[in-house]
Write a structure and sequence with these properties.
Radius of gyration: 49 Å
Oligomer: single chain
Distance between the termini: 66 Å
Shape: extended
Strand content: 25-35%
Number of helices: 24
Largest sheet: 13 strands, antiparallel
Structural class: alpha+beta
Length: about 1850
């Protein structure tokens, strides 16, 4: 080892000696060459000679030291030339060591056998596997890896500091860039130090580098400037300060107030580039993406193969491990010795190689030393010559100088002449210096001198190292001798190890033989087990006989019991009633049933005829819509059967009465027969063992006993029959008669309605026998479908009326369910009919009354309708009367309406809002110039502004012509006030009894019409109420096969939220495999919706959109329950009204991957399980599925609304409209349905945009709003110092324009209804119109000419980020419009607004106000239950107040958000779920218990917990003798109740304290108890006893019990409160929601939490026990984090009127006392907000009449009057609130505190709220929501 450590010193010396020994003197004038890589330094001439000599040297031959080996060889220590071992990657290697030099092909190492860092490959394998740059992510061009390696067949990269990802394809956190783009690198994020300091890295966009979440009031790409409304230095001083300009903008640097708002940048710093560069960049990105995909595909495939191979290797390794353990003891010794021998041999070989190397390097150093010595001598000689020459030159210079002086004196030269001569001499000297020989000689001399000095220095160093090496030779020789001795010892040890190995092999052979013997014994045991199983089977067969006897006897008992229940009257009287009933004619009912079967048969035949010819699905959809009568006929048949149940039951009673004697004889004979069989079986079993005989005997005895019981039971039945009341039987038969008559009447109605349907079915069948894809047959079939729908619609009202009558009279549940199913089918039929995209032909006398889903509130302010029209030119009727009516939508009185007509060869749009008609003629395109194919018309009205569009497509391309015409109402009206009961919608014409307004009173339309949309809804002519003079035989529909239309319709499908697509047996197009993939593209503006759903029993897969982001949840039967995969990082927002490609990939049956727009969103692993599904629902599902057991796993049960396209399974396309199970979807993607015309604001949100207009100069705008809040900012706009706002103030609408206020006279606009506002600003007046009620004021004379209307101005809806006097709005705003300079008047699409803050653009969750409910329940809602008591701690239950009341409900409705607070009033919580467990007796109490509770008690509840013990449900009587309980013990659920003196206990096997939601149903019936968990595990136990004796009393406890309760029956650790969340409590199928009392129960919060006590907005308080009191001297310290600026913090009250109260009011903390003399108080107001979301410390110190209040660093005190008779009372202390009855009238704040309190101390003594005397209301002990 010493030699090894000295090698770095020895090697250079030996090397240099070799150089000296092999060198020769160079020729004179030769130039030295020195090779620093180890070659010798020789002259040029000598090098030529040596190369010639090397070529003649053979391999392995001995050559003199003075010669070198040829290229590719190196000289060994013995002097021989050996070939270099460089793996073909180098041609040179060092003499002595053989180390390769100049490795090629990106290799390195002593033998070029390794790849350097940043390269990967096989350095030994050669081309094409030699080292290549790491593909991290792109080889050579963009390689950002330190190194890379292969693992499981794929390349793994070790990235540089700035990069991340498997292939370094993205930037690491804190850096930005696009490594996939050639030339791009990752740079460090620069947010100017204004990002979140809690983050490790600055947060910026990983591609662009734009900073996210700028703090300290900054904004900009790098947070480099102050945000709007602030000024200062954001980069260095970081002192952005709020502008003090009264809401106006200020200079961002100086803070000087500005007259106009500054221009707001777009927020991007992107340069403007040409489209060409964009195209090439995009092409490069696509190419790189393709390469990345191919590489990822190969990686995935290799991973799959690698996993399988690794599993196989693991199995082999496990087997090897077991074998090694058997002989580990002896083999370990052998291995150890082998290792020692190998180490010793390796060490010896290393020593030998080092000695040889030292020798070789010594020779080389000696040779080179001699060469250097020779060259040094030559250099010295040359230096001596140079010195002599320099001396001579010096002498010559001196001589020249002396001669110069001499000649100057002799010649009498002047100084000028001397200077001239000197200059000439200097020029001569310069010329001499410039001459080449002198320059070269000097340079050569300098180089030789420097080289000589370096050589001398190196020789001295080499000589020192050589001496040190020679001193180590003796040590090396000694170590070699020691190693020789060790080698001999190891040789002996190896021999011993070999002997042990042989012995081990012998033992292994013995073990193998033993194993074989044991396997043979195992086979014998298997045979014996098979014999035993055969014996058991025979025994089972023998016992089957007695068991069969037992079952037959049980059946006899059931039959007799049934007869007992049916026989209810005397035999004679029943026969008389049957005679009366026989008068009814049953033939009609039978005829109706047969007719229904015939209709079903014909419908099936029609379906078969249509199959295969319906190429586009439209006909099939229409016929499916009309064929609903089949289902209705079936359900009517069920209703008839149910209605005839009384008749059938009566007949059965008659049969039973007539044949009662026969039945008795029969059952007697049957019993005797069974007895004989039992006796035979007894004889047969006589030879069996004793157990079988005893068992058979027991069964026979039981048979006799049951026979006797049967006889006695029959006798009792006969007795009861004879004593029955005839009157009761008569009444029942009368009711049966009435029900039968109703059923007969309903059947006749159905028969009359279905007779023409039968004819239509037959006609369809005949017409479609020879269907050859012609449009005539197609149109005829479609129109017949509409005709059937019409006939069905005519009978629906009558049918529903009769069904309603039957439903009321018949008590049977199945009739009500059938009627409900019929209603659902009718609704589905309407929905399907609305999707029928087929036109109708009108002949001038035809008309259709359409039945769309009209919401008159939605149509009031905004109405939009589109339709297709085809107008014939060659019709003779049109030549005589060209003016025609098209459509009418309005009231029956024709005072408010809108319509279309053709007048004077122009299409005219007419609407009337209660005044005069507005007519808008489209004169730019006369009707006579229209093409002979379909065009599309769209009419709009927003407020008083109307507009009409005509689009004429082209036959040969997708180009089209567009024509627009607009108009407006001149009068005051702006709303289309339709009445729901009087509104009608006529198309093509009107019925004869309807009178049209004069402007539309024209002949009916001639041509084809097809409806498209009405506002957001898709409508169709086939969803009609009535049709008039429509004959599809003579007037078939027009085919619409236009390219421009069919292209857009065939690509995508439209879902309106009610329909869905169902693809059955999806494996017909592809198979579930190792990689299973679903792809679909969606486009929607909505927040929520179901996208994909698959169900198989309790297993499911659901992909939903929740709050605009994807939510995937699935369970394939996993042991751990459902798996959730959601876009929690909000990477891909879906609801932006753009198409997004969604891919769900299930890899290797254990990994689910979610991809959006080809970007990986998230993945999750699960248990290895294949997908167990065959069918898939798309865009929704039937209601019965959404309401099934999987509903608890869905984020919502809302159908998808929007467009879908490209659904694929395993990359195979599906045409959703051709799938048989599809319902209620249509082709196309109407743009109107994707607009976001509505926005919901939650009190903290707003949206903003900009426009080119000055709202303060001349402006008109309007919008709808709907709210329950009395205050809020609806609209805001500022222009310099002036502002325009529309807001709510105490229920009124207020317009504030530059300080001029206009307020509506009414103050009831916060009624939850829709209201319409129009605002008008002119130079003369300001006008505000709310629901057509106008208020106005004069515009003061103010010069506004200086304003620039061309500039872009910003405006806000729903609130503003700027500081305003009003709080943000809570409610809905919709259908907004403006008069703009840059576009026409049109409804605003909020989806296009660039700034949207916490705003929902779909839905309006504003309900009607519960005013009536408040008045009904408000009288006693705030009173505490029970009487007041002095010692509250001793009588806890009497002070508690209800959890809900007038005060709290009013707060909930009107105070959802405190504008002064940073945190929302109510943290995010699970809906209708409550959290228990803050205290030992946390609970809810319910007073109402149903009367039939003792007969049947069925509860269902959902729970979630991590606790091992706790009470969930408990009810009992006063003495707790009778009880029922559900609790948790050791994580398992236990259902327990009593049956008499017996306690029934049903216990789950699994533990359910896993923190997941579980549904639990527990039932106590008459003689059975059941526990059902998650609908999968059913546990039950039977019991006996009389249920009538089991009675319990109120209250019913949930989540815990009152102190002292349940200890008698339940173990003590489960008596305490359940710690977790409970929801969905139901008793006998009805929800229980209103608790009479609540103790320490809060909503079930979501998100992070921390230590503390939370007081929720529902109200509550904590009462401290008697060990804490507030006397004459005390100190109270605690911390608060409020969510409301007002509320009671602490209260103490004595019986003599003294009190102490601490409360907040609008952020001010006040302590108020009364010490028996008078009131006195002190207050503290912080400079910053007390409600800023941070913790604040409060301290109160009292000493007699002196009180000090500390809030953070602010202090104040008060000195009150001194009371000489003061007594130190020990009264209860209330925290967070106080009952209303204890508050005095002088207190200004009576609300409970909302927020968190922690670290509560009295007199430096910590107070634990969990040990409080009482916790009442919604208070969470020890847990506080953090956000």
């Amino acid at each position: 080892m010493a030699l090894i450590s000295a090698w770095p010193l020895v090697s250079p010396i030996l090397f240099f000696l070799r150089c000296f020994s092999s060198s020769t003197a160079s020729s004179e004038g030769g130039v030295f060459q020195f090779d620093f890589e180890g070659s010798s330094a020789v002259s040029t001439q000598e090098a030529t000679v040596i190369r010639g000599q090397q070529q003649a040297v053979a391999t392995g031959s001995w050559v003199p030291f003075a010669e070198n080996c040829q290229e590719g060889f190196y000289r060994t220590s013995s002097g021989k030339c050996s070939p270099c071992n460089c793996n073909g990657n180098a041609n040179r290697c060092l003499d002595g060591s053989g180390i390769c030099v100049d490795c090629q092909r990106n290799t390195t190492g002593q033998h070029c056998e390794q790849c350097p860092d940043g390269f990967i490959g096989d350095a030994v394998g050669g081309v094409p596997t030699f080292c290549q740059p790491c593909p991290c992510p792109v080889p050579a061009l963009a390689n950002f890896a330190v190194s890379c390696y292969r693992k499981s067949g794929s390349v793994r990269c070790v990235c540089k500091e700035n990069y991340a990802g498997p292939n370094c394809e993205r930037c690491a956190p804190g850096y930005y860039g696009n490594p996939l783009l050639i030339g791009s690198t990752c740079k460090k994020c620069d947010c100017s130090g204004n990002s979140d300091p809690n983050l490790i890295f600055e947060d910026c966009d990983e591609v662009t580098g734009q900073c996210r979440n700028c703090l300290r009031n900054t904004t900009g790409f790098k947070c480099e400037r102050c945000a709007p409304g602030y000024y200062g230095d954001a980069r260095f001083a970081k002192n952005c300060t709020e502008c003090n300009c009264g809401g106006r903008m200020c200079d961002s640097q100086t803070g000087e107030c500005l007259a106009d708002s500054p221009e707001v940048s777009t927020g991007t710093d992107c340069p403007t580039i040409s489209c060409d560069k964009c195209i090439w960049d995009l092409t490069d990105d696509i190419r790189l993406a393709v390469l990345s995909i191919d590489e990822s595909k190969a990686t995935l495939l290799s991973i799959s193969t690698g996993v399988a191979a690794q599993k196989r290797l693991n199995d082999l390794n496990l087997t090897t491990t077991h074998l090694k353990e058997a002989m580990s003891k002896k083999k370990n010794h052998a291995v150890l010795w082998t290792i020692q021998v190998d180490d010793a041999a390796d060490e010896t070989n290393d020593l030998l190689r080092e000695v040889a190397t030292l020798d070789e390097q010594g020779n080389e150093a000696s040779s080179k030393g001699r060469v250097v010595q020779k060259e040094t001598m030559e250099t010295n000689n040359r230096a001596t010559q140079l010195v002599q020459q320099l001396s001579n030159m010096r002498d010559n210079i001196q001589e020249i100088s002396s001669k110069m002086k001499y000649y100057a004196v002799q010649q009498e030269l002047s100084p000028e002449e001397i200077a001239q001569k000197l200059s000439v001499a200097e020029e001569m000297l310069k010329e001499i210096k410039r001459r080449k020989p002198f320059t070269n000689q000097r340079q050569l001399a300098d180089e030789e001198e420097n080289a000589a000095e370096k050589l001398l220095q190196q020789v001295e160093e080499f000589h020192e190292r050589y001496n040190d090496t020679r001193s180590l030779v003796f040590d090396v020789l000694e170590q070699l001798s020691e190693q020789d001795v060790k080698l001999s010892d190891l040789e002996e040890a190896l021999n011993q190890a070999l002997d042990h190995v042989i012995q081990t092999e012998d033992v292994n052979k013995e073990n193998t033989a033993n194993l074989q013997r044991r396997e043979k014994q195992h086979e014998k045991i298997k045979e014996q087990v098979a014999e035993v199983n055969g014996i058991l089977i025979n025994a089972t067969a023998i016992l089957a006989g007695p068991q069969k006897v037992n079952s037959e006897l049980s059946e006899v008992i059931k039959n007799v019991s049934g007869f007992y229940a049916e026989i209810d009257g005397a035999k004679k009287e029943l026969q008389e009633k049957i005679a009366n009933l026989s008068l009814f004619d049953d033939a009609l009912v039978e005829k109706a049933m047969n007719h229904a079967h015939n209709l079903r048969r014909l419908a099936d035949e029609l379906d078969r005829n249509l199959y295969g010819v319906d190429t586009n699905g439209l006909v099939q959809r229409a016929i499916n819509a009309s064929n609903v009568y089949e289902n209705i006929a079936g359900y009517i048949e069920e209703a008839n059967k149910t209605a005839l149940l009384a008749l059938n039951t009566t007949n059965r009673v008659n049969d039973a009465a007539v044949g009662i004697d026969t039945q008795i004889i029969y059952h007697k004979g049957k019993s005797e027969e069974l007895l004989n069989r039992a006796i035979e079986l007894q004889r047969t079993a006589a030879g069996s063992n004793d157990f079988t005989i005893a068992d058979t005997s027991r069964h026979v005895n039981g048979t006799f006993a049951r026979l006797n019981a049967l006889r006695s039971q029959l006798i009792r039945v006969i007795t009861k029959m004879q004593s029955a009341e005839p009157v009761e039987a008569r009444e029942r038969l009368e009711k049966a008669k009435m029900k039968t008559e109703e059923a007969v009447s309903a059947t006749m109605t159905v028969t009359q309605a279905t007779t023409p349907m039968d004819e239509n079915v037959r006609l369809w069948s005949e017409n479609l026998q020879d269907f050859q894809h012609n449009s005539v047959a197609y149109d005829s079939a479609v129109h017949s479908a509409g005709d059937a729908v019409k006939k069905l619609a005519e009978v629906f009202p009558q049918l529903l009326d009769k069904l309603h009558t039957v439903e009321q009279k018949a008590p049977a549940n199945n009739i009500s369910s059938n009627i409900q199913r019929i209603r659902e089918l009718i609704a589905q039929t309407r929905s399907v009919a609305s999707k029928v995209q087929v036109s109708m032909m009108f002949e001038g006398q035809s008309a259709v009354e359409v039945n769309p889903k009209i919401n008159v509130e939605e149509l009031k302010s905004f109405t939009s309708m589109s339709l297709y029209i085809k107008y014939p030119k060659d019709n003779p009727q049109l030549a005589a009367s060209p003016d025609r009516f098209i459509l009418y939508l309005g009231n029956k009185d024709a005072k408010t309406y809108m319509g279309l007509a053709i007048k004077n060869d122009n299409l005219v749009y007419i609407y009337n809002l209660g005044g005069q008609d507005v007519e808008i003629p489209l004169d730019a395109k006369p009707v006579s110039t229209w093409p002979s194919y379909f065009s599309i018309i769209k009419i709009e009205r927003i407020g008083r502004h109307g507009k009409m569009f005509l689009t004429v497509p082209s036959l040969s391309s997708t180009s089209e012509e567009k024509f627009i015409k607009k108009g407006e109402v001149l009068g005051p009206g702006s709303l289309l006030n339709l009445e729901p009961e009087n509104a009608v919608f006529y198309v093509g014409g009107v019925p004869p009894d309807f009178k049209l307004p004069p402007s539309l009173n024209l002949p009916g339309f001639i041509g084809c019409l097809e409806l498209a949309t009405l506002n957001d809804d898709v409508i169709s002519l086939y969803n009609f109420k009535h049709v008039y003079n429509i004959d599809t035989t003579t007037s078939p529909p027009c085919a619409r096969n236009k390219l421009a239309f069919t292209q857009s319709r065939a690509v995508s499908y439209f879902f309106d939220g009610s329909g869905y697509a169902l693809a059955r047996n999806i494996e017909r197009r592809g198979r579930f495999s190792q990689v299973t993939r679903f792809d679909i593209e969606v486009r929607t503006p909505t927040d929520n919706g179901l996208i994909l759903l698959m169900i198989n029993g309790s297993m499911f897969f659901s992909l939903e959109m929740h709050n605009g982001f994807l939510y995937l949840r699935y369970d394939f039967g996993f042991s751990t329950g459902p798996v959730l995969l959601e876009d929690s990082m909000k990477k891909a927002q879906i609801n932006d009204a753009k198409f997004h490609e969604i891919s769900v990939i299930y890899h290797n049956s254990k990994k689910m991957i979610l991809v959006v727009d080809r970007r990986h969103i998230k993945s999750v692993d699960n248990e290895r399980t294949a997908m167990p599904f065959t069918d898939i629902y798309i865009g929704g599902a039937p209601a019965e599925i959404l309401r099934s057991s999987i509903s608890s796993h869905l984020a919502g049960s809302i159908g998808f609304k929007g467009c879908m396209k490209g659904f694929q399974f395993q990359k195979k396309d599906f045409n959703l409209l051709e799938e048989p199970g599809t319902l209620g979807i249509s082709y196309g993607c109407p743009e109107d349905s994707l607009m976001s015309r509505k926005a919901y604001f939650n009190g903290e949100s707003f949206i903003a945009s900009s426009q080119k207009v000055s709202l303060l100069t001349e402006f008109e705008g309007g919008f709808n709003f709907r709210t329950l809040q009395p205050n809020g900012l609806l609209f805001y706009y500022s222009e310099g110092s002036d502002a325009l706002s529309i807001s709510m103030d105490r229920g009124a609408v207020v317009l504030n324009a530059s300080g001029i206020k206009i307020q509506s006279p009414d103050r009831n606009y916060n009624d939850g209804k829709t209201h319409f506002i129009i605002t008008s600003v002119t130079p003369e007046r300001y006008e505000l119109t709310v629901d057509d009620k106008k208020q106005s004021k004069k515009n003061p004379a103010k010069d506004r000419a200086g304003r620039s209307p061309e500039s872009v101005k910003k405006f806000y809806f729903g609130g503003s980020p700027l500081r305003t006097q009003q709080a943000n709005f809570t409610g809905c705003i919709s259908n907004a419009y403006f008069t703009r300079l840059d576009r026409e008047v049109e409804v605003e699409d909020f989806q296009q607004y660039p700034e949207k803050v916490q705003t929902s653009l779909y839905g309006c969750p504003v309900e009607s106000p519960p005013v009536a409910l408040l008045h009904k329940k408000g009288k006693n809602s705030s009173k505490a239950k029970g009487n007041r008591n002095k010692k509250v701690g001793r009588d806890k239950d009497k002070i508690s107040q209800p959890s809900t009341g007038l005060k709290n409900l009013y707060q909930e409705v009107n105070m959802q958000r405190d504008p002064q607070c940073h945190l929302p009033m109510n943290p995010k919580a699970t809906e209708h779920a409550y959290q228990f467990g803050g205290t030992a007796n946390s609970r809810q109490e319910f007073d109402h218990i149903p009367k039939d509770f003792s007969q049947r008690a069925q509860f269902s509840i959902s729970l979630k917990t991590h606790s091992s013990h706790g009470m969930i449900f408990y009810v009992s009587d006063q003495k707790e003798t009778n009880f029922m309980a559900l609790f948790v013990a050791h994580g398992r659920l236990i259902f327990m109740f009593n049956a008499g003196h017996q306690k029934i206990r049903i216990k789950s096997q699994e533990k359910y304290n896993d923190g997941l939601w579980h549904n639990v149903i527990f039932i106590r019936g008459k003689n059975i108890g059941r526990l059902i968990i998650d609908g999968l595990r059913v546990l039950e136990e039977s019991f006996g006893g009389n249920a009538n004796t089991w009675q319990v009393t109120e209250p019913l406890y949930i989540g815990g019990v009152a102190p002292g309760k349940a200890v008698k029956n339940i173990q003590i650790n489960s008596v305490y409160s359940f710690s977790g969340c409970l929801s969905n409590l139901q008793l006998n199928g009805r929800s229980i929601t209103s608790a009479s009392q609540t103790f320490s129960v809060t909503p079930c919060f979501e998100g992070p939490s921390e230590a503390g006590t939370y007081f929720s907005s529902e109200g509550g308080y904590v009462v401290l026990d008697e060990s804490f009191s507030l006397g004459l001297k005390f100190e109270v310290v605690f911390e608060i984090r409020p969510r409301s600026s007002s509320g009671i913090l602490l209260h103490g009250h004595s019986v003599n009127g003294e009190y102490l109260n601490m409360h907040m009011r609008n952020g001010q903390v006040t302590v108020k006392l009364n010490n028996g003399i008078r009131d006195f108080s002190t207050s503290v107001t912080l400079k910053q907000s007390l409600c800023d979301g941070k913790w604040h410390r409060i301290a109160v110190i009292r000493d007699a009449n002196v009180v000090q209040l500390d809030v953070d660093s602010e202090v104040n005190h008060v000195v009150g009057p001194l009371n000489p008779k003061a007594i130190d009372h020990r009264e209860p202390v209330f925290i967070g609130g106080v009952p209303e009855s204890l508050l005095t009238s002088s207190l200004t704040t009576r609300n409970s505190f909302i927020g968190c309190i922690r670290n509560f101390m009295i007199d430096e003594k910590p107070v634990s709220f969990s040990k409080a005397a009482l916790v009442s209301g919604a208070v969470s002990i020890n847990t506080c929501p953090a956000a």
